[in-house]
Amino acid sequence: MAKQQDTKKLFENLSGAGKSIGVLTSGGDAQGMNAAVRAVVRMGIYVGAKVYFIHEGYQGMVDGGDNIEEASWESVSSMLQVGGTVIGSARCKEFRSHEGRLKAAHQLVKRGITNLCVIGGDGSLTGANLFREEWSGLLEELVQQSLIDEEAAQNNSELHIVGMVGSIDNDFCGTDMTIGTDSALHRIIEVVDAIMTTAQSHQRTFVLEVMGRHCGYLALVSALACGADWVLIPEMPPEDGWEEHMCQKLSENRADKKRLNIIIVAEGAIDCHNKPITSNHIKELVVSCLGFDTRVTILGHVQRGGTPSAFDRILASRMGVEAVLALLEASDSTPACVVSLCGNQAVRLPLMECVQMTQDVQKSMDEKNFEEAVRLRGRSFENNLNTYKLLSYHKADSELPNSSFNVAVLNVGAPAAGMNAAVRSAVRVGITEGHKMFAVNDGFEGFYKGQIKEIKWGDVAGWTGQGGSILGTKRTLPAKHLDKIAEQIRIHNINALLVIGGFEAFECLLQLYEARTSHEDFCIPMCMLPATISNNVPGTDLSIGADTSLNAIVETCDRIKQSASGTKRRVFIIETMGGYCGYLASVGGLAAGADTVYIYEEPFNIRDLQSNVEHLTEKMKTGIQRGLVLRNENSNENFTTDFICQLYSEEGKGVFDCRKNVLGHMQQGGAPSPFDRNFGTKIAAKAIQWISRKLKESYKDGKVFANTEDTACLLGMRRRTMAFQPVVQLKDETDFAHRIPKEQWWLKLHPLMKILAKYKTSYDVSDSGQLEPVTRIRPKKAD
Fold first, then answer.
1. What distance lies between CA 718 and its chain's CA centroid?
2. Any known ligand binding at 560?
3. Yes or no: is domain 13-177+308-362 CATH 3.40.50.450?
4. What does the record give as the active site (predicted)?
């Protein structure tokens, strides 16, 4: 074990003693900025540094005085769930001038602040970089003007800067998601879901204008997430004659018995001559061409408001901790960096390279080189755009390729929000590829009973926003019914299978793969998409449904914390679902600001419970007189939720009282979050394309025959990539007794929750550290 400790890069070796960190939010506000500030403050204090709030962005840095105040552990309590930025943000003209930056440098030197953590957009980060480049010159000027002495200049000779991108537009290159984007999507989708019901009642067309002056990300992803009829974004201006094309599509959809039309417009939408396309222009167009009852809704600043989503809280907390680590490791020779997310991994990128690339996007758009602009936006944007194009247009049957293959789709296991979005995407992409798509009701139980029927393009309209499983889902495994299932495959001539579900779906695919030796009917391409709130499937970091569930947990925890704050000195024990997998409890605890989390993966004993009670007793002496403890349902068979609640009540007598709350099946319900809709839509499209390829490869002598390992796969997200992995190869990675993968990436986030709750712990930072170059031209992947 000692040897393993040596190879790990542990952050206990990084000390912040004697260092001072200033944290500021600048430019437009974004939900999740407070979570980032909280993480920077607590991580900074944890490693022994002094941390200062710089209120009102750069304006506060220039003005100094009370605008720069030392932060304490308690001063960031209760800000995790608050939208906007608590320390204020302002656009500052003065900082753009040399004199303004000189004043700011003076204010920082007075307090010995030589590390800055800037949370803002590309403008704010560019300003910070310029400030760093001028730093030594500014210090010389201050010495010449006798505002500081030589010693002060010597002690503060280096300024280190780390940026975090807070912007709801997701318009910064180099990062998949910026802080605030997911929450803004939540606001948009809440509005779209509400509008859909009224639009359906009156057979109306709605034109929705969303933010994004230079970037169409919000418009594009919300169009994907609600199945909009048409979307207009700056990066993909429509060709001449688009007006006619759009009206034709709207009227075709109406003829298909669709009672409403939704058109989403980014505020910066343009046509191919760089002329703006406004929401009112679209309304006039629809009314004059089609005579449809049309309304315009401009969402405006609603998108910036409200509480941050679970995703943004986790993203911001991870980024905040990473930013402090980057500052501790920075030297005079390292360029200013920005901490960001690539796939599911925190990375550090050179700040100015990202800014340059972001500016190049605008340049490409000004030069009408839109393909280049999309490429520079990054792979996340490109994937969204390609998926939207695949799903947006229903070609006439005569235009479709005729593959003569039949593909069946079914749901297995417990319902998970986002399953329906995945089915809709699979059906439509399948039809576009020329296949006949079949829907199976009630999982493998319905399969062996013959509940299989063809499903058409229009049958899945409006499915994206529906929670649960419309096809119906059961936990029945196929092993006992192999003969009947094989018979149904023959009757309906099924050539490929797409199974969407959780751990049971994984077991089902394994059983079918193993039955190939005795039943040739199972020698067909089979693919599984992970969909379970527990996120306990091997071969993938994330599952469809887990994000929606996390949001339900976090929302409830926010309310419970509010109740506890009102009552004072109260601790809540909250039980989450997840079977033996602690993902929901652990990551939910990080997003909700829990004091302790009990999970099966991290065994605990009575001494741990005792020290947790003592920890809370200490906390009650401060100004934060409430506690939040999350317990995974199967974390320990003897230390039940009741037992822990009674223990806390007894041991905390006279200091705090205790209540328990079992969240139960509310974690499985509700409309899917934007993330789950989008994730389900994208991976289902990718899976169908894989199935098409495998069908072509395995079609010989008039029939499909696929019996190799790589024709029964699970499509999962692994760190930065989406990968098709043979299920038989995932067997060794799986603990079947407890229905969890043997190794789980999120356990690396577990210590973060402890650090932010003031526990001394070990944190492995081997993953972070190296500054990576920004990749510009990506070779086309074979897959």
1. 14
2. no
3. yes
4. 169 (proton acceptor)
